[in-house]
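#struct-help
A.M.: can someone run this one for me? Single chain, 383 residues.
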Amino acid sequence: MYKRAIEPFIENYLQGSENRILFIWGPRRSGKTTLLEKISTEQHVPIFNFYSLTDRERFVPRKEVLARLADEHKLILIDEVQNYPEGTVALKLLHDEFHIKIIATGSSELRQKSNDFDSLADRFIEQYCLPFSIHEIASNTNVLAYEKSNFEKEIQTKLQIFGAYPEIYTTQTLTDDEKIEKLQKILDTYILKDVINIYDLKNEKLAKDILTKIALQLGSEVSIREIAADLGANKTTVANYIEIFIKNYILIPLPSFKTNVRKAVSEHRKLYFYDLGIRNILVKDFRDLSLRPDKGGLFENFIIIELEKLRKINTIHQTMYFYREYGGKEIDVVLEDYKKNYICLELKLDKNNGNKDIFPLTHKFITINKNDYFEKLSNLTNL
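D.P.: on it. Structure tokens below:
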């Protein structure tokens, strides 16, 4: 079993004096339940699953009911917490009245679905469990020094074709066809149906068509108006679906960087996928990278994914943008921290000097290509 980057944080939480609720967010099938099962075994406590009506009924927000829970369990583990938004009140009472540690996993729509979520202010902390990052893969793999270069090439190839969902990456016996079948199931059963059911959406086909349109525009600015027109859909509906995909770790948005001191223009965002296996199942293309006309976009999306994982897993306070001048020159990624320090990243498959001088504010400029990506991404956490 792979050790996840979040596990040292969980160990410190369990051993320390921190008593706030620990929420672990992430997409379906990213390993959250596996984490809870490991904690359950080590701590000898059960897991309550909020898919189960029986388990939800144990969290009725009455003190006498919750007192029994607190007396019976030194630690409360909850899976799929988003399926019972009303449980927010019970979690608040368990925290305030019984001071018991709680670890709850789910997707971030609980924040959107619960009318009482704001009542948990200052009562919780958050961490993320996402599909494997390159650093998680490396830390769980014994690689000799002379094999490092080939290993890093192999990782990026695998993740750009089949993605980083644990069940896809770690099952070595799967054929390519079996991986494709599993990815289709993740898309249809765990992504589309889950989102459709939770948000009570009316059109699963439209949801899939919107994602496919975005998948075909990888690395380009996305126009909601154009997607709506192409699909014969309402613009507001398309925009709402996209926001739901973002909130549920399907899409990563990259807005345009705007400042009063530059000549740049963009009315649209760029949208990338949290997992390229899901993107490739949408466009039905699993060919070798050397045969792919979209290989530049795949590499760009691959780096965006790893940047997003770095930011979330390491709690790095940065915002990601892209930058484009009126003349058309672009910076692929602009990282802005909360002290307004800027790092500009140029993402190219092969070595390229990039548009080093077009960003108008003081910045550090870094190019990342397929040969040095691992080192460059590793160093970003130290900048």
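A.M.: thanks! Residues 7-128 form a domain with the Rossmann fold fold (CATH 3.40.50.300).
D.P.: also worth noting: The first helix runs from residue 7 to 15.
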